[in-house]
Design brief:
Helix content: over 70%
Number of helices: 3
Largest sheet: none
């Protein structure tokens, strides 16, 4: 679990990278016209941002729980 400032920055950066990859897929789904896929990916992107925002607040366990949930459902 992230404990130092450097750990928190690193963890937040990792989630940023995941968010960026999903954002690319959201953009592709917007252009493909697949409403179902767009909704699914937009939901994933939203949950990643929730996890991201918890890190600087020091709520790493909650962030990790969201990430575990996403791994299990995706």
């Amino acid at each position: 679990m992230a404990t130092s400032f450097a750990d928190l920055i690193y963890r937040e950066s990792e989630i940023d990278a995941l968010w960026s990859l999903v954002d690319i897929q959201v953009t592709a789904a917007e252009h493909s016209g697949s409403a179902t896929e767009l909704a699914r990916l937009a939901g994933l992107r939203s949950r990643l941002w929730e996890a991201h925002d918890l890190v600087p607040e020091g709520r790493c366990r909650e962030s990790a729980a969201i990430l575990r949930e996403l791994v299990q459902t995706w």
